[in-house]
Amino acid sequence: MIITFYGTRGSIPVCESGFQEFGGNTTCVAVSGNTLGESVLIFDAGTGIRQLGKKLIHQVFSEKNKIFITFSHFHWDHIQGFPFFAPAYDKTKHIEFFILSDTPPVDDLKNVLSKQMESTYFPILIDNMGANFTFTINKSDELSFDGGKLLVNKHNHPGGAYGYRLEVEGKILVYCTDIEHGEEIDQKVVDFCKSADVLIHDAQYTPEQLFNHRGWGHSSWEQAIEVAELAGIKKLFLTHHDPEHNDEFLRNIEKQCQKRFPNCFLAREGQQIKI
Ligand SMILES: [Zn+2]
Ligand SMILES: [Zn+2]
């Protein structure tokens, strides 16, 4: 399993100097690898998906190999890159959008994505992009996925958000962003993350900032580490960095995190993990 971060920023993209090490693009993580064939599974379509698109546009996909895109939820920072995803304009490409949940957040997935492309907001309509799209709402909490399985867990965030657990050939990845635990760590989330090789977890705030941002839907790095400790995680990657946290600030946080949990890293745009 190859996991690549294309966007690690939360809330809004940033492009100032001092933000280049951890990156300024909003959330997008791609999973590829042997068991996936030529397919790629994409979690979230924040602005980072633009760079991923530039790579995938040169890739030839056969009939059964596709670009799969799923979403933690539909806040802007998780969908705003899609209109700039080059493969969506290539009529030889097939993109399968899907939601996996027995309580789906929307009943029309295409509608959610096409709304931000209405002529008031964007020059090209989704139907005029060119690629072959399918939109699937899978009313289940588990899906067979390329020889393994993909599981989903709904967690607390304004409007709700979903974490994903991908298990393939004995390797486990959990993607869990835009989560607010509340006063205590959500035990359901800990159970869902159990024994993962890699956990990608929201850590937008410092513990002090979290105190002043109740209801914004995010976690502190301390909470993310607590989840990792309770769930027996091998490697923890913190993401959804606050747009006000520059490289120096984040490097400092990473040092503090590693004192408590040595296998904890703050995700950097372009970083690749193989498990
Ligand atoms: Zn977000
Ligand atoms: Zn959100």
Structure description:
The chain is an alpha/beta fold and 275 residues long. It has one domain: 4-Layer Sandwich (Metallo-beta-lactamase, Chain A), CATH 3.60.15.10. It contains six helices and 14 strands. The protein has helices spanning 49-56, 109-115, 187-193, 207-212, 221-231, 247-260, and strands spanning 2-7, 28-32, 40-43, 67-70, 94-100, 132-138, 142-145, 148-155, 161-168, 171-176, 198-202, 235-239, 264-266, 272-274. The strands form two sheets. The chain has a seven-stranded mixed sheet with strand order 6-5-4-3-2-1-14. Strands 7-8-9-10-11-12-13 form a seven-stranded mixed sheet. Helix 3 crosses helix 5 (221-231). The model has no long low-confidence stretch (mean pLDDT 95). The site of one zinc ion has 5 residues, from loops.
List keywords for this structure.
275 residues, alpha/beta, Metallo-beta-lactamase, Chain A, 7-stranded mixed sheet, 6 helices, 27% strand, binds zinc ion
As a percent range, the share of strand residues is 25-35%
Q: Kindly report the spatial arrangement of strands forming the biggest sheet.
A: 6-5-4-3-2-1-14
Q: Which architecture name does CATH use?
A: 4-Layer Sandwich
Helical fraction: 10-25%
Shape call: globular
State the low-pLDDT regions, or none.
none
- The average pLDDT score comes to 95
CATH topology: Metallo-beta-lactamase, Chain A
